[in-house]
Amino acid sequence: MADSDGEALADLPPSAKLVYKVLEYNGAMTQKDIVEESMLSARTVRYALERLEDIDIVSEDVYFADARQNLYELTDEAEAVTDGAADPAACDD
């Protein structure tokens, strides 16, 4: 959920949060698909994916249909972040 600097999804720039939501909604996608879906520039998507990978929310794998591309998907830790935010019992009031 967080790296050694203690950075979390809430601390990331809006572009990284958008890429996270695109992956959450659509499932595993290539960088090209994320660019098309999010309407962000390729450079911005690369940076967002890098930031998401740094905090272990997104994983990168080989896209077997075209080995020149990578396939990005949310990790199990990302699902825990989403589940924890949606769980009212997780809030300390």
Would you mind describing this structure in some detail?
It holds the Pfam family HTH_24. It comes from Natronomonas pharaonis (strain ATCC 35678 / DSM 2160 / CIP 103997 / JCM 8858 / NBRC 14720 / NCIMB 2260 / Gabara). This is NP_1176A family transcription regulator. InterPro entries: WH-like_DNA-bd_sf, WH_DNA-bd_sf. β2 and β3 (70-74) form a beta hairpin. The chain has a single domain (9-78), classed as Arc Repressor Mutant, subunit A, CATH 1.10.10.10. It contains four helices and three strands, in the order αβααββα. The longest helix is centred in the N-terminal third of the chain and has 13 residues, at 14-26. The protein has 93 residues and is α+β, with helices and mostly antiparallel strands. α1 (14-26) crosses α3 (42-54). It starts with 13 loop residues before the first helix and ends in a 7-residue tail after the last helix.
How would you concisely characterize the structure shown here?
The protein is an alpha+beta fold and 93 residues long.
Number of continuous helical runs = 4
- The CATH architecture would be Orthogonal Bundle
Number of strands: 3
Strand/helix succession: HEHHEEH
* N/C terminus separation: 22 Å
Our count of domains comes out at 1
CATH topology: Arc Repressor Mutant, subunit A
Rounded to the nearest angstrom, the radius of gyration is 14 Å
User: How much β-strand is present in the residues?
Assistant: 5-15%
Mean pLDDT: 84
| Morphology | globular
What CATH first level would be assigned?
A: Mainly Alpha
Helix content: 40-55%
Largest sheet features: 3 strands, antiparallel
Low-confidence stretches: none
